[in-house]
Amino acid sequence: MRVRRLRKEVAALEVTAFINLIVVLVPFLLSTAVFTRLAVMDLTLPAQSSSKLEQLKANDLKLEVVIRPESLEVGDRIGGLIQRIEKKEGQHDFKALNTLMQTIKQKFPETRTATVLSEPDTPYDVLVHVMDSVRSGRSTNGGPKLVRVELFPDVSVGDAPVRTKAAS
After folding, report:
1. Within a domain: 50
2. Which domain holds residue 67?
3. Which of 107, 118, 149, 155 fits a disulfide with 122 by CB distance 3.0 to 4.6 angstroms?
4. What's the start-to-end Cα distance of the chain, in Å?
């Protein structure tokens, strides 16, 4: 007896619907994607200086900005405190800091370095604002337009010195 087998034709794979989906989905995903821009700043740690020769240079500025919870202390590592900028309305006064940095830059135009020292519980946003105020500012330079000026672009970051009870 002869067995009859049904001949089945190989089914063709239909990908037209899938290709249509991809054609619509790819531009949609590309248009809704969020592209982030990262800004990286090269920072250095403050150099240790124990040499007496460095302390003898009277015109050499070792600028330090210490971030305290209640104020910003701007000073010279060798000469001491230049100015203490108290908080205004519960916020650090970054405009006053930037104005002071511009004044210091006029007196020491060759100096490019500054050290920002912060306490361990300093918010990151405050640290970045202080660094921005120290690095650059806006000035009229005798003209009607505001121009971005470079103040102390080489910023080092470190830990603030611990205050003694008498200094508090």
Report:
1. no
2. 59-159
3. 118
4. 110
CA 69 vs. chain centroid, Å, equals: 19
User: For position 151, which CATH number holds?
Assistant: 3.30.420
The most distant pair of C-alpha atoms in the chain lies apart, rounded to whole Å, by: 117
Q: pTM score, two decimals?
A: 0.61
Nearest in space to 127 (alpha carbons), one of 80, 159, 153, 149: 159
8 part of a folded domain: no
Tally of structural domains, the chain: 1
Phi, psi of 93, rounded to the nearest 5 degrees: -90, 90
Instruction: Report pLDDT digits (tens) over 114-144.
Output: 999 999 889 999 999 999 999 988 877 666 7
Rounded to 10 degrees, the C-alpha dihedral 47/49/53/55 comes to 100
137 in Cβ contact with 149 (< 8 Å): yes
